[in-house]
């Protein structure tokens, strides 16, 4: 008797659909973040076969010019952000982290799922990338869902979101 196992089809996220609509090739990667399988960046990079500095986190910052003054900064998950330096780079008087409890209202994503793809396309917030990622041809960002990432050619993503490179850390 032959046992036929039907392969489970993974439903694309809205952000993966955006990449499809713009004819941008990408690789999807899922990990069981909610099931207790939280891995460190070096382990994740090892599974992806990439340098951990090519895996980016997306940080939403609020400026001092009112409720709609938001910018998004993407930097390697192993790096820290210097808010004073970034404020100077962007000619902002002051920048601080956006309220995590209110991220869903600000960006449309929960904490851990923010991605430059949807935030720029849907909200129009300016996107800035750590200039140190320019050495990588391919980078990884959230796919808009906790536990899901996409690997995409760096320049295609930067072009899609009209991103700019800045200095993030001294």
Automatic annotation (TrEMBL):
GO terms for biological process: translation. InterPro entries: Prolyl-tRNA_editing_YbaK/EbsC (IPR004369), YbaK/aa-tRNA-synt-asso_dom_sf (IPR036754), YbaK/aa-tRNA-synth-assoc-dom (IPR007214). Pfam families: tRNA_edit. Residues 40-159 form the YbaK/aminoacyl-tRNA synthetase-associated domain. Its EC number is 4.2.-.-. GO terms for molecular function: aminoacyl-tRNA deacylase activity; lyase activity. It is an enzyme of class 4 (lyase). Keywords: Lyase, Protein biosynthesis. Gene3D superfamilies: YbaK/aminoacyl-tRNA synthetase-associated domain. Belongs to the prolyl-tRNA editing family. YbaK/EbsC subfamily. This is Cys-tRNA(Pro)/Cys-tRNA(Cys) deacylase. It comes from Dellaglioa algida DSM 15638.
């Amino acid at each position: 008797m032959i046992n036929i196992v039907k392969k489970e089809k993974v439903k694309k996220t809205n952000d993966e659909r955006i990449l499809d609509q713009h004819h941008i090739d990408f690789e999807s990667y899922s990990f069981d973040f909610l099931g207790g399988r939280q891995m460190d960046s070096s382990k994740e990079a090892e599974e992806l076969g990439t340098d951990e500095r090519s895996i980016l986190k997306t940080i939403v910052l609020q400026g001092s010019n009112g409720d709609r003054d938001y910018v998004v900064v993407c930097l390697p998950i192993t790096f820290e952000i210097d808010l004073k330096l970034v404020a100077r780079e962007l000619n902002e008087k002051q920048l601080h982290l956006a309220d995590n409890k209110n991220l869903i209202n600000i960006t449309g994503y929960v904490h851990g799922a923010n991605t430059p793809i949807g935030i720029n396309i849907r909200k129009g917030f300016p996107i800035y990338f750590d200039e140190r990622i320019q050495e990588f041809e391919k980078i990884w960002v959230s796919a808009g869902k906790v536990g899901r990432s996409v690997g995409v050619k760096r320049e295609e993503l930067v072009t899609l979101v009209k991103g700019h490179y800045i200095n993030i850390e001294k």
